[in-house]
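Query structure, 298 tokens:
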């Protein structure tokens, strides 16, 4: 039975209006316009303007004929979800993404990737730490603790994780500690080159009083009195305070003479340096308080 003449047959219009083999214009299907339909001066003209826009025309031509997606505010379909990203359940409040989790091959515990160390096998089957997490090949993850790395090297856990013969150096735990230390010291050099480091007790105290500090360092062989005062000032400012390196190590990393105390201001390199320092301290198995006020070596 034919449809009433005062109703528009959208399906028929899409078939009749388009040449054989050419996609129909979905914009006409969405707004219900027809070449045979009487013009209505009160109808919105947004669809006509959108067809004059090259970008809109390209968008319309890309839609498949016969599909009528739910329109948004401008009469267009909502964007399809990006399947290359995590779902909303993997996001923290505020839109921030959670850090990827890894599982320790020794303890079986899972946690943020930043709390683990990645290991790979070189072509000769030798276990190699990958602190930058960029080396190719299958990776095995171990908690960033010296005791866990030592146990993994001695228990054959790497071979089981790689499902292939793997030889771990006897001093792998010390090799990792040295690499973490070098990485932390190198990050201090980046902070200095970025202009974020205040050297010396007086300059560092000024930054702490302004409340613009991320962390403060006192050398383990600096005077106990100066380290204690700087530590109290850092605690009052809400900044991290550590004693991890000697005066000579800090001086070489910073590129200055006799760097006994330094304070680092906010900035992207400062946050990376803080993470490297904390990972080095955690690996040694020291409580943060002990690392803060470590006495000078005898």
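Result returned for the query:
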């Amino acid at each position: 039975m034919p449809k009433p003449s005062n109703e528009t047959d959208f399906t028929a219009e899409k078939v009749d209006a388009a040449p054989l083999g050419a996609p129909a214009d979905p914009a006409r299907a969405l707004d219900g316009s027809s070449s045979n339909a009487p013009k209505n001066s009160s109808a919105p003209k947004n669809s006509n303007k959108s067809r004059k826009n090259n970008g809109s025309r390209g968008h319309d031509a890309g839609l498949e004929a016969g599909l009528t997606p739910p329109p948004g505010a401008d009469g267009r379909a909502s964007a399809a979800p990006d399947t290359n990203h995590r779902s909303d359940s993997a996001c923290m409040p505020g839109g921030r993404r959670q850090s990827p989790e890894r599982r320790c091959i020794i303890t079986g515990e899972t946690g943020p990737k930043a709390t683990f160390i990645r290991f790979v096998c070189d072509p000769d089957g030798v276990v190699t730490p990958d602190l930058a997490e960029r080396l190719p090949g299958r990776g095995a993850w171990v908690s960033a603790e010296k005791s866990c790395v030592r146990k993994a090297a001695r228990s054959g856990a790497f071979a089981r994780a790689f499902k292939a013969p793997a030889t771990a150096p006897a001093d792998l735990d010390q090799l990792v500690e040295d690499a973490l230390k070098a990485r932390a010291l190198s990050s201090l050099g980046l902070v200095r080159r970025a202009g974020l480091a205040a050297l010396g007790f007086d300059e560092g105290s000024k930054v702490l009083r302004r409340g613009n500090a991320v962390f403060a360092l006192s050398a383990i062989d600096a005077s106990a009195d100066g380290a204690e005062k700087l530590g109290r000032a850092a605690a009052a400012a809400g900044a991290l305070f550590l004693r991890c390196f000697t005066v000579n190590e800090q001086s070489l990393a910073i590129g200055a003479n006799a760097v006994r105390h330094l304070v680092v201001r906010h900035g992207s390199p400062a946050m990376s340096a803080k993470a490297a320092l904390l990972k080095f301290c955690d690996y040694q198995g020291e409580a943060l308080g002990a690392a803060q006020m470590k006495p000078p070596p005898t």
